[in-house]
Amino acid sequence: MIDDFHTTLNDGVDDTQSAPSPNTTPSCNADENDKEIEIVPTEGEKKRKQTSVVWNHFSKRKVDGLWKAVCNYCDKKLGGESKNGTRHLYDHFKRCPLRTQRHITQSMLNLNKKIDGKSTLGTYNFDPEEARKKLAQMIIRHEYSLSMVDHEGFVEYSNTLQPMFKVVSRNTIRYDILKMYKGEKVMAIKLIEANKSRIAIITDMWTTSNQKKGYMVVTAHYIDDSWILQSKILRFMYVPCPHNAETISDALMGCLMDWNVDRKLSTLNVDNCTANDVAIPIMKDKLFSSGLMLSGDFFHMCCTAHILNLIAEDGMYILDKGIVNIHESVSYWTATTKRNEKFTETARQLHIQSTKVLALDMPVRWNSTYVMLSTALIYKSIFAHLKQHESGYKTLPLEDDWVKARDLCDNYHLRFYL
Fold first, then answer.
1. Quick one: angle between helices 367-378 and 399-416, nearest 10?
2. Which of 42, 87, 296, 390 has the maximum number of C-beta atoms within 10 A of its C-beta?
3. Residue 286 DSSP class
4. Cα–Cα distances in Å, from 189 out to 138, 179, 410?
């Protein structure tokens, strides 16, 4: 049926057809259904009113430099210039196999909610392109899997909400997201270029525990023309091995050149590791020294958070012997799912009223040690109870260990969450 529809010769006006005169009055009783509909003007045109009700069922868009009237139901593109008139749009509306309105003047009602809580009814025109854009934005905002558009349940749900919306495939929504990203990137680059202040770059690099791959995130901080601090993530990228000074400097320099900020830098903030210390002179050689403040004397800034992390790790090393049994106990009961379930079941039997879960601390997050100790203190009695029934459990903390852990939590609570 749709194929027959596309082969109908009189269904629309293409670019090769002779256009009717702008003063031609369309037939098919077009005038009796006319009302004022506002259309977006072209460049150089004054804002004017369109009088045909047919524009309730078509959207005016610019395609390859020409205005087209796009059907809201089947997406067919027809002549949309003012010289084309509206006769062909009426003809298409009558033949469109996907239309839901039986009469040209029929419109869908939309419930408009205002800020004051009141609601009004108005006409509603479905825009498939806008719906597709909102679908892509939803996936980005909530970090949904791209495969959700292929799920039968989601397709059925979408068809129930709006039968005229055709759910796109996973590859199509991926293309839409990348296109959206490129558009946002272009606008961000123009915004940064137009800003008069310099830009401070902060980098952070880590290796994933499961993939054993290195990644780097590059963030730009600057003060806009309204004296408001702005922060934008320029890039989240994979860094190939080896993670030496040359590799790090090449990856970072490529990002700065891509965003065209290499001439507007103020400082570069990196972690205090040997590879970064060597990479900084390499970066300065690649950059124009005349474009750096004070010839780059203050270009390299040490990461304050990393310095605090090193200080905290040194302090925790002194206390490590006092909490090693607690660490090993938490490690033992979280090692397998079976042990974790046994620990949870014992907590339920002993009526421990807490929903917190045992969590092992991480070397790169020193505040995680506080979380581990504070949670273990809640389940102190469970460790002693399980020691009597689990022969493989050999690291039961002593009472002195629990005293040190409680003192540590009481004295360092505020410091861990500064």
1. 130
2. 296
3. H
4. 24, 15, 48
Structure tokens at 367: 């505040």
Residue 68: partners with Cβ closer than 8 Å, 6 or more residues away: 60, 61, 62, 77, 78, 79, 80
Rounded to the nearest angstrom, the gap between the alpha carbon of residue 29 and the centroid of all alpha carbons in its chain is 49
State the pairing for strand pair 300-302/265-270: parallel
| Phi, psi at 78, each rounded to 5° | -120, 170
SS3 sequence of 64-103: CCEEEEEECCCCCEEECCHHHCCHHHHHHHHHCCCCCCCC
The number of helix segments (H) and strand segments (E) in the chain equals: 12, 12
- DSSP letter assigned to residue 295: G
Q: And the tokens for 215?
A: 């990644």
Nearest to 83 by CA among 38, 18, 28: 18
Q: Please report the pLDDT score of residue 3 as a whole number.
A: 42
Give Cβ neighbours of residue 86 (< 8 Å, ≥ 6 apart): 26, 30, 52, 54, 55
Q: Sign of the C-alpha dihedral, residues 147, 150, 151, 153?
A: positive
Task: Report how far Cα 209 is from the mean position of its chain's Cα atoms.
Answer: 23
> pTM higher than 0.70, yes or no?
no
CA separation, residue 81 to residues 62, 87, 125, 418 (Å): 10, 12, 21, 63
- Token representation of residue 104: 């040209």
Per-residue pLDDT tens digits for 11-44: 443 443 333 443 333 333 433 343 333 344 444 4
DSSP 106-173: --EEEEEEPTTS-EEEEEE---HHHHHHHHHHHHHHHT--GGGGG-HHHHHHHHHH-TT--PPPHHHH
Instruction: Answer yes or no: are the C-beta atoms of 91 and 10 closer than 8 Å.
Output: yes
Residues 6+ apart with CB under 8 A from 199: 192, 220, 221, 222, 261, 264, 265, 266
The phi and psi torsions of 25 (rounded to 5 degrees) equal -90, 120
Measured torsion, CA atoms of residues 110, 113, 118, 122, in degrees rounded to the nearest 10: -20
Q: Which tens digit of pLDDT belongs to each residue from 61-105? A: 888 888 999 998 888 899 888 888 888 888 888 888 777 665 655
